[in-house]
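Quick one, tokens below. Sequence please?
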């Protein structure tokens, strides 16, 4: 699988250097087949306390425990899903570029006024390394996850990919995402119950930026999904009572990484375009 995966990535990189007419063809995403059936979802007190302890050691402060970051997670239990296939990695800039070329959809970017209205702690200047120019991804980042895309941008990509491939693609539900990320046994992290910063892209080791999606193969889930912890948060199809979208997975900007557990859940406005949020899709 890693060898075949790298071949696909090489082909995507090659596509970025070929004429636009060829590159309009949708790159065929690598997928993992997830069987129907039950899995252990959510978290219990022991898992949440472990997450808080990781954060406290990393930040030197109990801020996530004080603010009860993980108390809104679903109780640990059994959840059933149907069968589906999920992309092995988040959607890359190369994959998204084919969509932009083919449809004229707006390229990933955000203007200063909008960004400052979000009230996020990252400066507008930090967004510039992720912003596309003249409809093209930033140089050297074609195999990085696409960011600065809203939930509706992700849904538009799914609609295009569905028409282009003849298969039905969509954002995963929270349960589908979590099952693919942790397997059926309810691991705290994709690889097991012990946190290991060498297995993901987080702020515990750097590089404090997105990386190519094949950079942390030792962090794969039992099913084989990559970058399900760290790298970028990912949009899901689920929303909370305030119509905010559930995002999963943590990011390169998080350390301690209690938030990088598959059971962890945050919500963000679905129209948000963030440097920390990308997406992957499921194929029905």
């Amino acid at each position: 699988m890693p060898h075949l995966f790298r071949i696909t990535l090489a082909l995507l990189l090659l596509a970025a250097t070929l004429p636009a007419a060829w590159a309009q063809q949708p790159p065929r995403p690598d997928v993992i087949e997830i069987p129907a059936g039950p899995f252990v979802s959510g978290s219990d007190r022991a898992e949440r306390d472990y997450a808080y302890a990781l954060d406290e050691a990393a930040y030197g402060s109990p801020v996530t425990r004080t603010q009860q970051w993980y108390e809104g997670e679903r109780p640990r239990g059994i959840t059933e899903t149907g069968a589906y296939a999920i992309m092995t990695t988040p959607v890359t800039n190369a994959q998204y570029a084919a969509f932009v070329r083919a449809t004229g959809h707006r390229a990933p970017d955000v203007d200063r006024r909008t960004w400052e209205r979000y009230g996020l702690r990252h400066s507008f200047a930090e967004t510039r390394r992720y912003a596309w120019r003249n409809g093209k991804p930033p140089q050297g980042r074609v195999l990085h996850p696409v960011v600065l895309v809203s939930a509706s941008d992700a849904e538009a990509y799914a609609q295009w990919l569905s028409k282009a491939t003849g298969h039905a693609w969509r954002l995963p539900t929270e349960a589908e995402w979590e099952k693919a990320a942790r397997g059926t046994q309810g691991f705290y992290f994709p690889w097991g119950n012990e946190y290991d910063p060498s297995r993901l892209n987080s702020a515990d080791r750097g590089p404090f930026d997105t990386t190519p999606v094949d950079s942390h193969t030792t962090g794969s889930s039992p099913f084989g999904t990559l970058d399900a912890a760290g790298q970028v948060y990912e949009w899901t199809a689920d929303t909370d009572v305030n119509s905010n979208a559930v995002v999963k997975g943590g990011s390169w900007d998080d350390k301690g990484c209690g938030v990088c557990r598959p059971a962890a859940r945050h919500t963000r406005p679905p129209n948000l375009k963030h440097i920390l949020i990308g997406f992957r899709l499921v194929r029905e």
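Strands lie at 31-34, 37-41, 77-81, 84-87, 169-170, 233-239, 245-248, 266-268, 277-278, 282-283. The two ends are 22 Å apart (CA to CA).
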